Amino acid sequence: MSLANLGPSGFQPGAWRWLVERVWRLEHAFERSRAAAKPEDDTRIRIFFVMAFFGVCFVVLGVGATIAALITDPGRGAGYLASTEGARGDLVDRDGRLLAVDLTHYALYVDPKEVWDKDEARRALGKALPDVPAKRLDKVVFGDHRTFVVGGLTPEQKEAIFNLGLPGISFEEQGRRIYPLGATAAHLVGFVDSGGKGLAGAERALDKPIRKAAGGGGPTVLSIDVRVQAALEDEVRKAALEFQPKGAVGVVTNVHTGEILGLASYPDFDANKAGTASDEQRLNRAAAAVYEMGSTFKAFTVAIGLDTGVATPTSTFDAREPFKLGYRTIHDFHAKHKILTLIEVFQYSSNIGTAKLAEAIGGPRLSQYFGKLGLTQPAKIELAESASPLTPKVWNDDAVASTSFGHGINVSPLALTRAMGALLNGGTLTPLTILKMAPGVRPEGARAVTEETSAEMLKIMRANVVPGLGGSGGKADVPGLSVGGKTGTGEKYDPSIRGYNHQRQVSSFAAVFPTAGPVDADRYFVLILLDEPHGSVGSHGQSTGGWVAAPAAGRVIARIAPFLGVQRRHEIMTVSNASNSDPGAGL
After folding, report:
1. Looking at the structure, do residues 174 and 115 belong to the same domain, yes or no?
2. Which of the chain's ends, N or C, has fewer CB atoms near its CB within 10 Å?
3. Which residues contact 12 (CB under 8 A, 6 or more apart)?
């Protein structure tokens, strides 16, 4: 068999014969050199051959590297350009303001075997790293092997330590998640662990897309507006400092899109130092806590009464005497001792009138509507913290009476926010979202109430805030912005007394603006909630929703309206069947 027939499969016979001939010629050249007793020619030829071989290999490798760099898709194959493990893409607000970013930091190591003067090195490191415990530095410098000292050093800190000129000092790069705004929006943005895994907030809820974005997919755009967020947090903090509650919540949403424009939970924490914060600080009270909301639930009961045809705005309810339903005898906090229209029941926050309305609606229909409003399930939102509600096991007369004015049912502030959105956006239950929606997009939601009921609720809620009309929400009014709303004061159940404690309350105000215009007009919802507030000099010792939450809601609305493009307009308000007496600040 000849060499010409031994070519590799797939190789062209002509090319193979050419290569074999060249090899034979080279070998004959070697033989001729030996036969002629000229070994130097044999050596030169062999050196030339070796150089030619390595030259060809170098050219092949160079061409391959060029193709890989310029042509090959880095996302395929071995993925040499893939993102570092734990890397995450940026988080920004709806206008592109930075909320979270990965930055290179450095870990400091010391190898004591390379340290010349250990006492001097110890003094220099102690001065440069005052936050590192002295015992740790002693162990590192006077130890016997290379040891990690501290991580998370900024480039500036690394440079300062490097410039000390200490032998035995070395650094290793490490990725670190940075939150430029610190505590601002910390509960919504969340935080990650040391390995880059999302543990809370958007960082946890959107963990996969944020990780994927690290490969160059662009930032993840959240729904919040930093300007709205800052104003909301500021007013919630001011209210908390004045009334000293256990905790406080603020939420701002677009009722048509379900976008969270601002979310505040007090006390807060610095997302850059989440590991040092307490559980109370890290708790997202807007999503993960549930409360008996009190009289804000009367908005739902009134809307259900209207939607089922059980009542109209002019329907009357006798509130002259306490009302007994089931095992409960129901009283009014600010008793009027008179027959009230449905609008007056809402304005005066009458427990008696609301319970009588709920009795007429009936348990089956009331519970069905609560389900349609999303109040019997966790708030639909990307946040993993969204808590499940506590609802009655049996919808008997006692449950009907209690839930009609916000007792006997515990929901999260976000669940209340979503349900309120359905009353105010034309009647559809829209999911909440922490992601920015495309301009002009309004997601479809299940029908909860009719458009006519929604339009009527906007009028009723506005009448409750107009000063001088007897409503409980007058302290939330902002001239020219057509604010509507409902106060809420839910007494908290106290196991020690096996009943509701009048001194422990959840006080809130659920606001909407502007109420003017058609149901599909741009509209925003604001919720302020304080858990167990205490009366102040400014509130004359009162701690109800109308005194502690409504004023804060009004201030938030006044501050954020310009950011949302809501213009102040002159308004002429005429509301029939509304009383001019007792503006109050009730429940």
Report:
1. yes
2. N
3. none
